[in-house]
Amino acid sequence: MNITASAVSLTVDDVAASRDFFITHFGYAEVMAADGFVSLSREDTAVDLVLLRRGIPVLPVEQRDQRASGLIVVFTVTDIEEQERRLRAEGVTITMPLREEPWGERLFLVTDPNGVVVELVEWVTPAGA
């Protein structure tokens, strides 16, 4: 198998709100769109995002009314403190402040208008390692 790209598909109530959030704050660009659907991509190795409106008929019946929940979209970055400052300055609510775990994970969380949780993480050498 040769995987040539990766995407995460998120079912949300307001596709435009999530689209605008990821374009404005995370540098995504709209690649394709139709009624109730948008595909977002970046020029780097970030995962592509597909946003589907809840209830859209292209989803199997048992999935149409589900929303993106219980998952976290994670972006690994190299300048986490700067990213937290930038997002705060842009008016994004930080839903979990920057912290460092004993195993070397520095992270913080934001949440998009549809409740999609986004984690930014930077890996560092743990203290005492």
Helix content: 10-25%
Number of helices: 2
Q: State the CATH class.
A: Alpha Beta
Record field, number of beta strands: 8
Strand content: 35-45%
Classified in CATH, the superfamily is 2,3-Dihydroxybiphenyl 1,2-Dioxygenase, domain 1
Can you tell me the overall shape?
A: globular
As a whole number of angstroms, the C-alpha radius of gyration is 16 Å
Strand arrangement, largest sheet?
1-4-3-2
Could you name the ranges where pLDDT drops below 50 across 5 or more consecutive residues? none
Structural class: alpha/beta
Count of distinct structural domains: 1
How would you spell out the order of helices and strands? Answer: EHEEEEHEEE
- Can you summarize the main beta sheet? 4 strands, mixed
Give the overall average pLDDT: 90
Fill in the CATH topology: 2,3-Dihydroxybiphenyl 1,2-Dioxygenase, domain 1
What's the architecture, going by CATH? Roll
Separation, N- and C-terminal Cα atoms: 38 Å
InterPro entries: Glyas_Bleomycin-R_OHBP_Dase, Glyas_Fos-R_dOase_dom, VOC_core
Domain VOC: 4-123
Protein name: VOC family protein
